[in-house]
Amino acid sequence: MRALAVVCVLAGTATAGPREVALQVGADPQYPLGATLTVPDGPGPFPAVVLVHGSGPLDRDETVGATRMFADLAAGLAARGIAVLRYDKRTFTYADRLTNDLTLDDEVIDDAVDAVYTLAARREIDASRIVVVGHSLGGMLAPEIATRAGHVAGVALLAPPARPPLDILRDQLRYLGAPADVRVAVEQASIVDALPLAPTEPVYVLGMPLTYWRDWERHDGIAAARALAIPTLVIQGGRDYQVTAEDFVLWKHGLPHASFVWLPADNHALIAGRGRPGPRDYAREAHVDVRAISKLAAFVLAR
After folding, report:
1. Is residue 214 situated within a structural domain?
2. Residue 237 has what pLDDT?
3. DSSP string, 12-39
4. How far apart are CA 78 and CA 235, in angstroms?
5. pTM of the complete model
6. Which residue numbers are catalytic?
7. Which is nearest to 24 in space by CA: 78, 85, 69, 73?
8. What is the mean pLDDT of residues 269-280?
């Protein structure tokens, strides 16, 4: 593996900046995942974070439209002296080989735990100062990931959901004005367990079986964070229509000793904007709010 040095020129003088190292992570040897470790300039060892994606098949930059949330976080944190490991999600790299019978262990947790182990073994890294940073679904699962990995100094949850997933999905579809048949399908799926007769065919919601959504419901991020009893930071944007203030309030009530940051102008990707948020926010190139990066960096450096 070859380190790629990034060189910047300031006032006519060449200085070494953060460098990127190509790695592999992955809990299952059948599904090795490409990864990038961004290492700050200097001798180290450095405090470090593992970035854990939200739901869906996402690459290591968490590219959505023209936005690259994880690439922004890696650059911003590395500039502040923090190493960052990000990786391609299993459902991104192996979408054609996976079935829809995935659990959250398969989709998120197992590979994230392996990423923590990979990071801790690096000589550039201070293994006592690793923080798990999760976005959206990854944020909800970050406390569980930290518990399974062990020896994690803190967790940071960026726009983490707290409500049941089908409730969140229902509210998103209503907000976006989705077709009535799509909204009805979600409503029906949410009550299928209460029906007097079980469906004869598997129930799917947005392409995933109901078993997937039920597995999600079984993971209680607030309870996991409370039991973990390590420093916890929650950052939430006020223009987020995907995970909302309702979730933020639940986290605040459930974790009274955690640190909370509310950024009124930010959307789900912690990108600042104006007006009614929607999918078009991701259609134009924009970058993560520097205030979010600064708050996150301060939290990590304090560990």
Report:
1. no
2. 98
3. TEEEEEEEEEEEEE-SSTTS-EEEEEEE
4. 19
5. 0.91
6. 136, 240, 268
7. 85
8. 96
CATH (domain of 90) = 3.40.50.1820
Q: CA-CA distance, 101 to 254, in Å (whole number)? A: 31
Residue 192 has pLDDT above 80, yes or no: no
Amino acid at 142: A
Give domain status of residue 275, yes or no.
yes
Total number of residues shown for the chain:
303
Question: Would you give the DSSP letter of residue 143?
Answer: H
- Total domains in the chain come to 1
Query: 126-156 burial, b if ≥16 CB within 10 A, otherwise e?
Result: bbebbbbbbbbbbbbbbbbbbbbbeebbbbb
Full residue range of the structural domain in which residue 137 is found: 3-7+14-163+220-301
Whether 191 is covered by a domain: the verdict is no
pLDDT tens profile 100-154: 888 999 999 999 999 999 999 999 999 999 999 999 999 999 999 999 999 999 9
Distance CA 140, CA 123 (A): 29
Domain-embedded: residue 178:
no
Does residue 265 contact residue 289 with C-beta atoms inside 8 Å? Answer: yes
Cis-peptide into 45, omega within 30 deg: yes
For 243, what's the count of Cα atoms within 13 Å in the CB-facing half-sphere? 31
What does DSSP say about strands 83-87 and 3-10: parallel, antiparallel, or unpaired?
unpaired
Angstrom distances, CA of residue 269 to CA of 54, 70, 102, 238, 261: 10, 9, 25, 11, 14
